[in-house]
Amino acid sequence: MKLIIFLLVFILISIFLLNQKEWIGYIKAGDWYTLKELMGNEMKSILLITMGFMIMQNVFSLIPFLLLTMFNIWLFGFLYGYLWSLLGNILGSLLVFYLARYGLQLHAKKYNHLTIKKKIEENGFMVILMSRLIPIFPSSIINVVGGVSNIKAKDYILGTFIGHTIFVLILSALSVGIISLDQQYSVYIILIILVMGITILMVKKQVGLKIKMN
To answer: In 10 A of CB 112, how many CB atoms?
Structure first.
């Protein structure tokens, strides 16, 4: 039953993607005025379409999320554009995570013996958080790998929430010129050091509690 639901959702997203090829081209080309005219003036339609694009990006990663964030800020302003981009990115990530977990995890059990898979699962929160803050891999790959692994759902959700909150804020700031591309690397380094410091303190605290309990 879960696999059937997975396939149905995947098919619906694929249909949406195929029907909106022209619209994707407008986003990539920066022809946002034409796209806005096609979407119409009803806020419900605009919200539905932009949410569809963000969810689709978490499935296929065909549109750079920076462009989607810039488009949302252009449509809704900085604050609402940031919040909408953040919500869409988090919902899209969770959707793909659970689709992969319920639809594909059984097929990934044959890789349980791999050392790297075990290491990722043991450090689930940190792996997801760092992968969100340092987007070396497309979001769609992170979502699927998180789903097919045995990473705890709470670690994935927390890492995704914190990581996206910071990353989307940086994208939003870049899109309106608050920080330059040169400054972006400095911001990343500071944030990573901060997050790693907090994580180390949390780990030490947990280890200390376990020692006391024993």
So the answer is: 11
